[in-house]
Amino acid sequence: MGFGTFDGIHEGHMDFFRQLKELGDKLYIVVARDKNVKISKCRPPKHKEEERYEALKKIKLIDKILLGHKDHFYQCLVDHQPDVIGLGYDQKADTKVLKVKFPHIKVVRLKPYQPEKYKSSLLK
Question: What is the pTM of this model?
Fold first, then answer.
């Protein structure tokens, strides 16, 4: 399972999906809600959550796309019980909290893919 805003899919995202897919049998992607993107990034996303969700449907590597919970960040982990969570090299996530709350889930930090070129904050 992987998480993100995915506000304009680029090659860095595609590499993220490929790395995630190698970690398990099925790839579940959780799309951040507009409200939560605004909180975490201090700005709203360029594209609405429904548009970002629809854009991900075109990516064959992904087995299931989920919208994140509006109020409970960890709810998708409770509901879907993934074996592995893949975090992007620059994703802010408290891995200690994840390991305490979900000791059965393996947490893997993924490698960057040309971050000087394919980083969402650089692509406008």
Answer: 0.90
